[in-house]
């Protein structure tokens, strides 16, 4: 589908005609918006022992919160805490554009084409690394010239918690140390015997929701 407003929590975006060649002179825009910029947990069921006193000894986030008003003979429920705002994670499965002539631009927010919010301008045949927005919206602009075309791209998007860079995955024939993906967290990689690492041995989740480098790969020695 070309030109669409998409909503979370997840979905797929492809270039027109994928997996066959896209059209010349294409101009497609997708804007992705999280379902809720700040999500709320599902209705809770933690009852209060008496009005105004919460019972949540195992959850410090809920401790000392007041009960919601309740009907006679019905338990009071704790107010549900608001979860951190959501951002958009974009992961590519296939990518093949005519290098230098056909491009996919990815940006922050809901205003497509705004140069101030551009995160990446993608072209060529290398599958891009994971991209994460800095707010609850992301835009994509696909543009092609008047001659020549390739197979295009397929990407999946998903809402994730703000303050996270998303799971970059583990390279084939490799191992990873670390399983947290929040700001300041570092992942370390190494390869199995008979393979050598290509890229950075360690990457860190930065405050712009992007990893400090692409996930490395493992190739035969």
From TrEMBL:
GO terms for cellular component: extracellular space. SMART domains: CCP, CUB. It comes from Ursus americanus. Disulfide bonds join 191-218. Residues 2-160 form the CUB domain. Keywords: Disulfide bond, Hydrolase, Protease, Serine protease, Sushi. The keyword Cytoplasm does not apply. GO terms for molecular function: serine-type endopeptidase activity. This is CUB and Sushi multiple domains 2. Residues 163-220 form the Sushi domain. It holds the Pfam family Sushi.
């Amino acid at each position: 589908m070309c030109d669409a407003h998409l909503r979370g929590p997840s979905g797929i975006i492809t270039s027109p005609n994928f997996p066959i060649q896209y059209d010349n002179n294409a101009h497609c825009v997708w804007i992705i918006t999280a379902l809720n910029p700040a999500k709320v947990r599902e209705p809770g069921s933690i009852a209060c022992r008496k009005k105004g006193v919460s019972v949540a000894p195992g959850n410090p986030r809920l401790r000392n919160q007041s009960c919601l008003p309740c009907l006679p003979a019905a338990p009071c429920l704790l107010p549900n805490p608001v979860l951190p705002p959501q951002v958009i994670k974009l992961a590519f499965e296939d990518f093949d554009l005519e290098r230098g002539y056909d491009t996919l631009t990815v940006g922050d927010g809901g205003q497509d084409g705004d140069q101030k919010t551009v995160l990446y301008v993608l072209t060529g045949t290398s599958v891009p690394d994971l991209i994460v927005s800095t707010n609850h919206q992301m835009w994509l602009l696909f543009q092609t010239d008047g001659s020549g075309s390739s197979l295009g791209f397929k990407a999946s998007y998903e809402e994730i918690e703000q303050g996270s860079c998303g799971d970059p995955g583990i390279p084939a024939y490799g191992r990873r140390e670390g399983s947290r993906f929040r700001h300041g967290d570092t992942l370390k990689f190494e390869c199995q015997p008979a393979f050598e690492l290509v890229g950075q041995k360690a990457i860190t989740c930065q405050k712009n929701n992007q990893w400090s480098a692409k996930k490395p790969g493992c190739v035969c020695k």
